[in-house]
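Hello, quick one for you while I still have it in my head. A protein chain has come my way and I'm curious about its shape. Can you walk me through what the tokens say about the fold? No rush at all, and the record is pasted right below.
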Amino acid sequence: MGRVTVAPSSARLPFTTIDEVAEALRSAGTRLTTPRRMVLEALFAADTLLTAEQIADGSVTGVPLDLTSVYRNLERLEELGVVRHMHIGHGASVYGLLSDGEREFLVCERCWKVTVADPEQLDRVRAVIRAEFGYEAHFTHFPLHGRCGDCATAP
């Protein structure tokens, strides 16, 4: 079984720039190396969640990186509460910044569209799950799967 990355228990700060991340890294005793900066540049530039392979191939920044280095840097950034990974299907994990606070996700199991939701938007869903099953549901690491509006009405 693979290694499981556990998010830090400390409160996450919203990061809106690479300089803010660099300061947080320095405070945690970690340097902002060139490969780490390139990973961050890809994540900040992307308008969607990315796989490690998409970061490594340079399709976002134009600069290819070593895949092992990308994974190592993503893991460290996740440990520091800058990045989160999640599983949207049977493929590779996807990564995104925790730049705007806590987010939860819905994924269409037909077209793989990812919808980002503020946790409060899913509070009523969580309340039903809690009342019916006694579970406290979260849709961060494993998002809520279903069909988007377009796919639900498609033949």
Summary: Confidence is low (pLDDT under 50) at residues 1-12. The chain is about 35% helix and 15% strand. The first strand starts at residue 83 and ends at 86. The chain has two domains: 18-97, 104-153.
